[in-house]
């Protein structure tokens, strides 16, 4: 057995018991949350979970069509629903808010929740523009609330395992030099998202862009995590719209090159993949990690005789597979976020800055310097 794999297995045997205890929300009292919007395609996640550690005490949704759909589909009490966000927050006094509307609506959710001391978790990305993101950060800091951003890839054991390998094996893997991310699917209309979701997802104001925002954010988030929050030096991007008849207002394909002093990231986001993709390649000076999906990965290092396969295990790594339990444990102080962590505010502010630079680069045909 090569040294890399041997070291990884030893590490897991020593620490798996401790880490596993952190992977499940342990506080007995359920976290009371409200939902701000139902139009996001991910809004059904919380209604389909079996855990009882999070309790919905109110739902803000001004669209009566969505209210009717969700009431009937999930047999919900009509008294849960409100058409006024501020009124709902004042009446039910939740501990947390989950934003499942358009990206543009994230700012309003934080404007209403933060002064009331209500913690917020939004769906990716954090905000539609840098200006929105900075105001949200200011509000979160002023009112001392947690403001998290949820990505599906944050639950992937392979994401955490890739970071761990490069941290644990600096001699055999070396410093990260190149990262390549593939994220996307056939397209939101092609995979059958709801009309309400499609309406704002393809609106450049409400979503901030097309595939560039929808799937470019994944790579920017993981890249920032792997690079320990290091700020890029420049961003270059090219967007295309291969299906203008379907997506006349936004891009459906993007390639983003993110430069660092000693590394480079390439983000390929698309609504044109023939199949769903969420995978990445990370190359160090002396080794690489290639992930296929949430659990399966391939590794090669200077100390291995060739490439070998590894299956990343969520429990052994202490990875939460449920963002709502994660949100609860952060609020309760059972988890402490590092500045570069996948859900963290610092990470996701930088994600919005990278996406903003990519939009400017694509519009001008020029590389955009990331000053500061």
If you had to describe this structure to a student in words, what would you say it looks like?
The structure is a single chain. Strand 11 (277-284) and strand 12 form a beta hairpin. The protein has helices at 3-20, 64-74, 85-92, 106-113, 130-142, 157-168, 170-173, 195-201, 211-214, 216-226, 314-317, 323-331, 345-364; strands at 31-36, 54-60, 81-82, 96-99, 119-123, 147-150, 176-184, 234-240, 253-259, 264-270, 277-284, 288-291, 296-300, 308-311, 368-369. The radius of gyration is 21 Å and the shape is globular. Helix 10 (216-226) packs across helix 13. Helices cover 35% and strands 22% of the residues. It has a domain at 156-319 and 341-369: 2-Layer Sandwich (Dihydrodipicolinate Reductase, domain 2). It has a 9-stranded mixed β-sheet with strand order 14-13-12-11-7-10-9-8-15.
How does the SSE layout of this entry go?
Blueprint: H1 3-20, E1 31-36, E2 54-60, H2 64-74, E3 81-82, H3 85-92, E4 96-99, H4 106-113, E5 119-123, H5 130-142, E6 147-150, H6 157-168, H7 170-173, E7 176-184, H8 195-201, H9 211-214, H10 216-226, E8 234-240, E9 253-259, E10 264-270, E11 277-284, E12 288-291, E13 296-300, E14 308-311, H11 314-317, H12 323-331, H13 345-364, E15 368-369
Parallel strand pairs: 1-2, 1-4, 2-3, 4-5, 5-6, 7-10
Antiparallel strand pairs: 7-11, 8-9, 8-15, 9-10, 11-12, 12-13, 13-14
Helix pairs in contact: 4-5, 5-13, 10-13
């Amino acid at each position: 057995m090569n040294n890399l794999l041997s070291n990884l297995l030893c590490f897991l045997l020593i620490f798996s018991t401790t880490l596993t205890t952190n992977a499940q929300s342990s506080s007995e009292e359920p976290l009371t949350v409200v939902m701000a919007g139902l139009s996001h395609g991910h809004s059904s996640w919380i209604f389909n979970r079996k855990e009882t550690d999070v309790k919905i005490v109110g739902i803000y949704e001004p669209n009566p069509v969505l209210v009717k759909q969700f009431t009937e589909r999930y047999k919900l009490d009509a008294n849960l629903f409100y058409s006024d966000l501020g009124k709902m927050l004042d009446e039910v006094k939740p501990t947390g808010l989950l934003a499942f509307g358009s990206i543009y609506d994230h700012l309003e959710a934080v404007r209403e929740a933060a002064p009331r001391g209500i913690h917020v978790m939004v769906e990716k990305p954090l905000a539609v523009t840098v200006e929105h993101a900075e105001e949200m950060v200011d509000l979160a800091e002023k009112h001392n609330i947690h403001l998290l951003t949820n990505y599906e890839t944050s639950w992937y054991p392979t994401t955490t395992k890739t970071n761990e390998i490069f941290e644990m094996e600096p001699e055999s893997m070396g410093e990260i030099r190149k990262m390549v991310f593939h994220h996307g699917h056939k397209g939101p209309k092609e995979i059958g998202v709801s009309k309400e979701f499609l309406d704002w997802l393809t609106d450049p104001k409400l979503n901030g862009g097309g595939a560039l925002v929808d799937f470019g954010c994944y790579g920017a988030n993981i890249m920032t995590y792997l690079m320990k929050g290091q700020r890029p030096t420049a961003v270059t991007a090219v967007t295309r719209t291969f299906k203008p008849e379907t997506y006349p207002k936004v891009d459906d394909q993007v390639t983003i090159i993110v430069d660092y002093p000693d590394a480079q990231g390439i983000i390929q986001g698309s609504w044109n993949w023939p199949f769903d993709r969420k995978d990445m390649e990370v190359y160090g000076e002396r080794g690489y990690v290639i992930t296929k999906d949430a659990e399966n990965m391939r590794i090669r290092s200077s100390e291995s005789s060739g490439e070998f396969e590894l299956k990343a295990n969520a429990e052994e790594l202490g990875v939460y597979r449920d963002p709502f339990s994660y949100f609860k444990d952060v609020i309760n102080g059972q988890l402490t976020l590092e500045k570069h962590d996948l859900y963290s505010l610092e990470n996701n502010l930088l994600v919005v800055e990278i996406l903003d630079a990519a939009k400017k680069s694509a519009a001008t045909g020029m590389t955009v310097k990331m000053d500061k």
